[in-house]
């Protein structure tokens, strides 16, 4: 199968950068388009049982955007070092598997490459597996990169 457009979500973690490096290698091999995204929650406190003020929200959004842009800049540097053109996008909304899948569908992605921390047992039960959620909810091919 020849891939035309690869999506790699990054969050600033080392495992997401490992997934980006793998996506870059695949993009280079198939001479295809590569897009990196970073998710930013528009209202991370929507389900909270406390009140927060506008300045607290503004501070959160500024920091979250700064971190997302930093992660995307790092991936851009990795791609550029390999001679690969990359598009980047900060995706605002819910930080969820659904957001990744919706973005992939909008961009006509035919492969999602993402990292997984490989949690097991109680850690997986309490923290979940973001990569496994994406894998289970999409019909697109998903390549999971482990640490």
UniProtKB/TrEMBL annotation:
<feature type="domain" description="UspA">
    <location>
        <begin position="3"/>
        <end position="146"/>
    </location>
</feature>
<dbReference type="InterPro" id="IPR006016">
    <property type="entry name" value="UspA"/>
</dbReference>
<keyword id="KW-0963">Cytoplasm</keyword>
<comment type="similarity">
    <text>Belongs to the universal stress protein A family.</text>
</comment>
<dbReference type="Pfam" id="PF00582">
    <property type="entry name" value="Usp"/>
</dbReference>
<dbReference type="InterPro" id="IPR006015">
    <property type="entry name" value="Universal_stress_UspA"/>
</dbReference>
<protein>
    <recommendedName>
        <fullName>Universal stress protein</fullName>
    </recommendedName>
</protein>
<dbReference type="InterPro" id="IPR014729">
    <property type="entry name" value="Rossmann-like_a/b/a_fold"/>
</dbReference>
<dbReference type="GO" id="GO:0005737">
    <property type="term" value="C:cytoplasm"/>
</dbReference>
